[in-house]
Design goal:
Number of strands: 20
Number of domains: 2
Largest sheet: 9 strands, antiparallel
Structural class: alpha+beta
Distance between the termini: 48 Å
Number of helices: 5
Order of helices and strands: EHEEHEEHHEEEEEEHEEEEEEEEE
Shape: elongated
């Protein structure tokens, strides 16, 4: 029987490989380490449980060289890479990290039973993979989200295999059992490991309002590493119009057009942010800015581009590709909910009512539940 939790590597994992090289610049001794596997799996899981789309970066958009001193990266490191680096440090703040260097070699059957028990309770796991004695290095970390009880396969997100589901099985080599990893689409394999073990359970509903890691608290309370990920590829300047209830780009109200008459109003509005050019994960892409009315409308896979208060249909020819986030328990406390799509004008509006350029009030009856990022 196959059991999978909702995390999907092609959707929720990073789209770049674990090619990091970390260089200690704090003096003697010089230290260079390869990879931030634990940081990548923990960071990806945090984007997932906070209801945020994983950043869209590919391997050509990441600087894999990380310079650091004790517990901090050096200036010039991007927010995303800094978060991955500190997520890696957080995975070392658990006593189970000693299993990478200890003499114990837990059996595959025992660890598979632990995987089943965690997954059946809706919990994810960071699995540690201990290297074979003939392989140099410190080991590896992956995120487990499923299993097959008939074949004793374990399904994981492995950042060495971006955009793939990776299967872990036991393989007999001579008189030894080894851990075998295989990608589901590339058929690549990795056979460097001797044992797997449960390093850390992860709860999808355990979030906090903290935005930085706290070493003493992580150790003392085992807070499950719930630190909100940074927002990257975000455009600010969006506003709510109190007259029509719509979302519009508010840098210059004079060039806008409100279906309630005149121009949009930013009076009483918060400052909103929209994710740019994300792949679909925790949200819906293909939202567009209309250069005629300045409003936000849905422009993908629909027979009409809606109704623009300026006349005719919305014009998204000059727009970026925006992503609207779906409301989840993970982002409920720090986003603004109750945003809806109107199937008459295709626009995004707040709540029920408002003024629709197609006539009457907006109709949110067919809409998903969206949330907005806010700075104030």
């Amino acid at each position: 029987m196959v059991v999978r939790l909702p995390f999907q590597p092609p959707l929720h994992g990073f789209h770049f490989p674990n090619a990091f090289r970390s260089n200690y610049t704090g003096g003697f001794p010089p230290i260079t380490t390869d990879g931030l596997c634990g940081g990548m799996v923990l960071a990806a899981f945090n984007f997932f449980r906070y209801g945020l789309p994983v950043p869209p970066h590919n391997q050509n958009e990441i600087d894999f060289n990380v310079n650091f001193e004790i517990l901090r990266t050096m200036p010039g490191t991007t927010d995303l890479v800094d978060y991955i680096f500190h997520s890696q440090i957080a995975t070392f703040e658990n006593i189970s990290i000693l299993a990478f260097i200890g003499p114990a070699h837990p059996s595959f059957d025992d660890e598979f039973r632990k995987v089943r028990a965690r997954i059946d309770q809706g919990q994810y796991l960071i699995l540690g993979l201990k290297l074979r004695p003939d392989v140099n290095g410190w080991g590896h970390q992956v995120l487990c989200y499923g299993y097959d009880s008939d074949t004793q396969e374990v399904f994981v997100y492995d950042p060495n295999f971006p955009d793939e589901e990776v299967t872990i099985t036991r393989q007999r080599v001579g008189n030894e059992n080894y851990i075998h990893l295989r990608g589901n689409s590339s058929s690549r394999t990795d056979e460097r490991y001797r044992v797997m073990f449960e390093q850390q359970e992860l709860f999808p509903d355990r979030v906090s309002d903290r935005v930085t890691y706290d070493f003493p608290d992580n150790v003392a309370r085992n807070l499950n590493f719930a630190v909100r990920p940074p927002l990257v590829n975000i455009q600010e300047g969006w506003r709510w119009c109190r007259n029509c209830q719509g979302m519009w780009f508010g840098l210059d109200p004079a060039v806008s057009c409100c279906p309630a008459g005149g121009v949009h109003s930013h009076e009483g509005s918060g400052l909103y942010q929209l994710p740019l050019d994300y792949r679909a994960s925790a949200g819906q892409s293909a939202w567009r800015w209309c250069r005629k009315c300045q409003g936000l409308f849905f422009g993908g896979d629909y027979p009409s581009l809606g109704v623009c208060p300026e006349g005719g249909q919305h014009d998204g020819a000059a727009s970026a590709n925006y992503t609207m986030l779906y409301g989840t328990p993970g982002n409920a406390d720090w986003t603004q909910g109750n945003w809806r799509w109107c199937d008459k004008c295709q626009g995004m509006h707040y709540g029920v009512g408002g003024v629709c350029p197609a006539g009457g009030a907006h109709n949110p009856s067919q809409s998903a539940h969206y949330v907005m990022l806010m700075t104030t």
